[in-house]
Amino acid sequence: MTTNSQKNPMPKWKKWLLGLGIPAGIIVIALALSPFWADYEKPILRDQLPDPAQVFLQTHYGNSKTALARKDLEWLEKEYEVILTDGIQITFDRHGEWKEIKHKAGCVPMDIVPAPIQEYINENHPGLCVREISQDRREIEVELTNRLELTFSKKNFLLIDWDD
Fold this sequence. Notes:
By secondary structure, this protein is α+β, with helices and mostly antiparallel strands. The protein folds into 2 domains: 39-104, Inhibitor of vertebrate lysozyme, Ivy, CATH 3.40.1420.30; 106-164, Inhibitor of vertebrate lysozyme, Ivy (3-Layer(aba) Sandwich). Helix content is 29%, strand content 32%. It has 3 helices and 9 strands; from the N terminus they run H-E-H-E-E-E-E-H-E-E-E-E. A 9-stranded antiparallel beta sheet has the order 1-2-3-4-5-6-7-8-9, with no helix packed on it. The longest helix is centred in the N-terminal third of the chain and has 26 residues, at 12-37. The chain is elongated, with a radius of gyration of 27 Å.
Protein backbone atom coordinates (compact mmCIF):
# COMPACT_ATOMS: atom_id res chain seq x y z
CA MET A 1 0.00 0.00 0.00
CA THR A 2 1.36 3.36 -0.95
CA THR A 3 0.38 6.63 0.61
CA ASN A 4 0.52 9.94 -1.06
CA SER A 5 2.04 12.20 1.61
CA GLN A 6 2.58 15.08 -0.77
CA LYS A 7 -0.10 17.69 -1.35
CA ASN A 8 -1.29 18.29 -4.84
CA PRO A 9 1.00 20.84 -6.43
CA MET A 10 -0.57 24.18 -7.42
CA PRO A 11 -1.66 24.23 -11.04
CA LYS A 12 0.51 26.31 -13.36
CA TRP A 13 -2.29 28.72 -14.22
CA LYS A 14 -2.77 29.55 -10.52
CA LYS A 15 0.97 30.18 -10.10
CA TRP A 16 0.93 32.42 -13.16
CA LEU A 17 -2.15 34.32 -11.95
CA LEU A 18 -0.67 34.74 -8.47
CA GLY A 19 2.67 35.89 -9.92
CA LEU A 20 0.99 38.41 -12.18
CA GLY A 21 -1.91 39.41 -9.94
CA ILE A 22 0.08 40.64 -6.94
CA PRO A 23 2.41 42.98 -8.90
CA ALA A 24 -0.53 44.21 -11.00
CA GLY A 25 -2.52 44.92 -7.83
CA ILE A 26 0.36 46.88 -6.33
CA ILE A 27 0.69 48.95 -9.50
CA VAL A 28 -3.04 49.71 -9.57
CA ILE A 29 -3.01 50.80 -5.91
CA ALA A 30 0.10 52.96 -6.45
CA LEU A 31 -1.48 54.68 -9.45
CA ALA A 32 -4.71 55.28 -7.53
CA LEU A 33 -2.87 56.85 -4.60
CA SER A 34 -0.29 58.82 -6.62
CA PRO A 35 -2.23 62.13 -6.53
CA PHE A 36 -1.80 62.11 -2.75
CA TRP A 37 1.98 62.24 -2.92
CA ALA A 38 2.59 63.84 -6.28
CA ASP A 39 3.99 67.35 -6.41
CA TYR A 40 1.31 69.81 -7.37
CA GLU A 41 1.74 73.48 -8.17
CA LYS A 42 -1.21 75.72 -8.89
CA PRO A 43 -0.99 79.42 -9.78
CA ILE A 44 -3.18 81.59 -7.58
CA LEU A 45 -3.94 85.26 -7.14
CA ARG A 46 -2.26 87.24 -4.37
CA ASP A 47 -5.60 87.67 -2.60
CA GLN A 48 -6.00 83.87 -2.45
CA LEU A 49 -3.05 83.60 -0.05
CA PRO A 50 -3.84 82.99 3.63
CA ASP A 51 -4.64 86.20 5.51
CA PRO A 52 -1.36 86.33 7.52
CA ALA A 53 0.62 86.10 4.25
CA GLN A 54 -1.40 88.94 2.72
CA VAL A 55 -0.84 91.11 5.81
CA PHE A 56 2.89 90.31 5.76
CA LEU A 57 3.20 91.27 2.10
CA GLN A 58 1.23 94.49 2.59
CA THR A 59 3.28 95.42 5.67
CA HIS A 60 6.77 94.69 4.36
CA TYR A 61 6.39 94.77 0.57
CA GLY A 62 3.34 96.98 0.02
CA ASN A 63 4.86 98.84 -2.94
CA SER A 64 6.03 95.67 -4.72
CA LYS A 65 3.95 93.98 -7.39
CA THR A 66 3.42 90.25 -7.54
CA ALA A 67 4.92 88.50 -10.57
CA LEU A 68 3.78 85.03 -9.51
CA ALA A 69 1.91 83.46 -6.62
CA ARG A 70 1.32 79.74 -6.38
CA LYS A 71 0.19 77.04 -4.03
CA ASP A 72 2.57 74.08 -3.78
CA LEU A 73 1.46 70.71 -2.49
CA GLU A 74 4.28 68.32 -1.72
CA TRP A 75 3.48 65.06 0.04
CA LEU A 76 0.55 66.29 2.10
CA GLU A 77 2.38 69.54 2.92
CA LYS A 78 0.99 72.79 1.61
CA GLU A 79 2.98 75.97 1.15
CA TYR A 80 2.71 79.13 -0.86
CA GLU A 81 5.39 80.80 -2.93
CA VAL A 82 5.31 84.43 -3.99
CA ILE A 83 7.75 86.03 -6.40
CA LEU A 84 7.68 89.81 -6.59
CA THR A 85 8.58 91.76 -9.74
CA ASP A 86 11.81 93.00 -8.14
CA GLY A 87 13.09 89.41 -7.75
CA ILE A 88 12.17 88.83 -4.10
CA GLN A 89 10.99 85.28 -3.33
CA ILE A 90 8.93 84.53 -0.23
CA THR A 91 7.71 81.12 0.87
CA PHE A 92 4.86 80.80 3.35
CA ASP A 93 3.65 77.74 5.24
CA ARG A 94 0.06 76.51 5.06
CA HIS A 95 -0.98 78.99 7.77
CA GLY A 96 0.54 81.98 5.96
CA GLU A 97 3.62 82.40 8.19
CA TRP A 98 6.83 83.11 6.28
CA LYS A 99 9.32 80.25 5.99
CA GLU A 100 11.92 81.73 3.67
CA ILE A 101 12.71 85.11 2.13
CA LYS A 102 15.30 85.57 -0.61
CA HIS A 103 16.44 88.89 -2.03
CA LYS A 104 18.41 88.75 -5.30
CA ALA A 105 19.58 92.31 -4.79
CA GLY A 106 19.13 94.36 -1.66
CA CYS A 107 18.41 93.29 1.88
CA VAL A 108 15.62 91.71 3.86
CA PRO A 109 13.80 94.43 5.85
CA MET A 110 15.42 94.49 9.28
CA ASP A 111 12.08 94.45 11.09
CA ILE A 112 11.62 90.88 9.83
CA VAL A 113 14.91 89.77 11.40
CA PRO A 114 14.53 89.07 15.16
CA ALA A 115 16.17 91.79 17.31
CA PRO A 116 18.82 89.51 18.95
CA ILE A 117 19.98 88.38 15.51
CA GLN A 118 20.07 92.00 14.29
CA GLU A 119 22.21 92.92 17.29
CA TYR A 120 24.61 90.02 16.64
CA ILE A 121 25.00 91.02 12.97
CA ASN A 122 25.51 94.72 13.79
CA GLU A 123 28.10 93.85 16.46
CA ASN A 124 30.05 91.15 14.63
CA HIS A 125 29.49 91.95 10.95
CA PRO A 126 29.01 95.73 10.70
CA GLY A 127 27.98 97.06 7.33
CA LEU A 128 26.48 93.75 6.21
CA CYS A 129 22.81 92.97 5.88
CA VAL A 130 20.66 89.87 5.51
CA ARG A 131 20.12 88.74 1.93
CA GLU A 132 18.23 85.53 2.79
CA ILE A 133 16.45 84.32 5.91
CA SER A 134 14.67 81.04 6.59
CA GLN A 135 13.09 79.53 9.64
CA ASP A 136 11.74 76.22 10.80
CA ARG A 137 10.57 75.02 14.19
CA ARG A 138 14.07 74.99 15.72
CA GLU A 139 16.35 77.30 13.76
CA ILE A 140 16.65 80.57 11.92
CA GLU A 141 19.26 80.72 9.21
CA VAL A 142 20.46 83.96 7.67
CA GLU A 143 22.74 84.58 4.73
CA LEU A 144 24.58 87.89 4.78
CA THR A 145 25.57 89.97 1.77
CA ASN A 146 29.09 88.48 1.90
CA ARG A 147 27.53 84.96 1.52
CA LEU A 148 28.27 84.04 5.15
CA GLU A 149 25.54 81.77 6.53
CA LEU A 150 24.70 81.96 10.22
CA THR A 151 22.32 79.58 11.99
CA PHE A 152 20.67 80.60 15.25
CA SER A 153 18.59 78.66 17.73
CA LYS A 154 14.99 79.82 17.50
CA LYS A 155 14.50 79.27 21.23
CA ASN A 156 17.18 81.63 22.55
CA PHE A 157 18.76 83.11 19.38
CA LEU A 158 22.23 81.72 20.13
CA LEU A 159 24.55 81.16 17.20
CA ILE A 160 24.76 77.41 16.60
CA ASP A 161 26.44 77.17 13.20
CA TRP A 162 28.59 79.22 10.85
CA ASP A 163 29.23 78.42 7.20
CA ASP A 164 31.27 80.55 4.83
